[in-house]
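quick one before i forget lol
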Amino acid sequence: MSFIKEFKEFATRGNVVDLAVGIIIGGAFGKIVSSLVADIIMPPIGLIIGGIKFTDLKIGLKDAVSDGSGNVVQEAVSLNIGNFIQATFDFIIVAGAIFLIIKLINSIKRKKIKEEAVTPSTPSVEVQLLTEIRDLLKKQP
């Protein structure tokens, strides 16, 4: 089998296509969650803690170096802990949303399995006829 043909079979296999769709939807979902956190959740939290924007929180390690005319020769070095806090909030919200979705899917599956277990399956017409024939044969001496 040629390399191109083998790759084509691999790329068009159902699991690969499903994975690609999942990644694309996941990327779009990530943007929605980032906007939710940055634009809706974080402003009230920042207001509660005194108007601080988490993305502005930094720990300076080294100040910027400027020359005599005010041009920056060397950028400042800092730990951007606010970005880390923001990313942590994003992760917690994404993880929580995915947990709720998986929990919902699992409860639907459990309910479906319960319903299948409760409803007895009726035998097919052939099985019913064979059962009747068997019962008639048992009655004969």
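fyi The radius of gyration is 31 Å.
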